[in-house]
Amino acid sequence: MTARARVALDTVLFVGGDAPASRAFYTLAMNHETAGEDSGHRISFVPAGDVPTPPSGCWVPCFDTDDMTATGRRALDLGARPAGTVPVDGRPQPVYSAPDGALFGLTDTAPRSPSQRLGDVAFVDLYTPLAREAATYYAHALSCQVIDEPAPGPGNYRLLVSADRPLAGVVDMLDVLPSAVPPHWIPFLRVLDLEAEVARLSDLGARVRVPATESAMGPFAVLADPFGVTFGIQTPASDDLLTQYASIWT
Amino acid sequence: MLRPVELEGEQVAVLCARGQDIPPALLAFAATLAGIELSRRHAVLSGRRELLGQVLEDVIAGQSSEQEAARRLGEHGLDAGKAHEVVVGSVACPPRRLRSYPWNLHTLLSQHQDPHLRAIVHDRVVLVVPEGAGLFVAKLCHEHLTSLGPDARVGVSKARVGVRGLRLGYFEARNALAEGHGVHVHRIQDLATALLIASIEAGMPLRDLAAEALAPLLEYDRKNGTSLVTTLRCYLAEDCAPAATATALFVHRNTLRNRLRLIEELTGRDIDSPSSRTHFWLATTGWEMGSATDLSSLLDGRGPQ
Questions:
Q1: ipTM of the predicted structure?
Q2: Mutation test of the interface with chain B: which of A27, A204, A208, A235, choosing the one with the most B Cβ atoms within 10 A?
Q3: pTM above 0.90, yes or no
């Protein structure tokens, strides 16, 4: 593995689908305008371009690296394929298809300062049937560490950590979903009152996939938006727990 | 092992038990208990909705002052100072069913009040939601209503601020609902009909309603020192005859033509269509009247001569 560099979660792209309708829903869901100028992980809604996506769209996390060219080359050398480009802020953003088929992007924008703003994307989890292989792949491609089972839990969970900071989670999809479901990323929006938010989002047409549930990573819920794309919500308690696990195990 | 949990005759959840040798009777008992607890919470929420329904009925009928109505709505969590959209839904089913229907299980689980104001008013479900949420809420509301009976229809208002905006929004949504089966959003072209219903049913002063209908022209006149509303009023008073109108206003016919074109652009209406002329006549006549004048006084001939 090469020398460790700073890698952090940057923008989360919503690629494809009905972008205006999805933007309208998530603007309401996040309770503030997306793509603001302030810090925090934001969502950008972009057309699919030549990137193959499901009809309802999908989430693509973009990881910020010091050296996008080198990281991109490494990602390809380790088995990713170029999936195409999408326009982000007027620039073409390359999107990669990891060996398991999940999409991700790389950026080299200025790093965002840590924020716990409500409504922002707090974290992302990868749901894949090849959890061990995927975690190993990202560890090498993004030069980060993998923590197996950072806390006891019913499922198989791995935490990707870069410079003592949590980067993403990797979930063994077969614990909760049938194998026919393709690997996919789920962003978790930060909310204060989990159950009230589940009720509010349900009123907007979201379907509850996992109701408000306690876990070692803090309370969370998973919903599908009115178009069928899955997203999660969690509380600031998860920020603290994830940071704690990242620092304990590295 | 799975067992359905029912509330008001609807299956709202499934109780799951993992493991061997779980007595089916025990699981059935647990599901019944869950249903009873949900029913208790549902009764509390229904009571809140009844209270809110009374508040909304008063707001719609204009039976309390703006300030008092804003205060009462505030007690139910609605900030009347923010823009809201009104969603109104109807379906062919007994009104009791509409009142008892479990609209959102997660509200019951969290034991919070409804995320958005929801009440039954005049046997229709009425929701007041933040700006931008109307269509999402309306689609879901239509899904629920479809499960209750035939001819489910839902109307959505445009976003409006204040208690008066809420009243008008209700009539806009009701008017949109009259479009027929499905979800319909209020169109600005339909404002005249919504205004008429509001004036007839709620006695809303015509001048208030006229201000809504003429808003783009009044705004333009205010910003640019023009006299589009006066021009429009004069044009209608002269039976839409350009020569007579130009003479009455002491302007060249080309000036008049430009003003009329601008009025069409700003309002999105064809000034020469019969429906637009009715719309503009009601609006300009209402605007000239005193603030307390309602539709009946206009029809009685007590308006300006």
A1: 0.81
A2: A204
A3: no
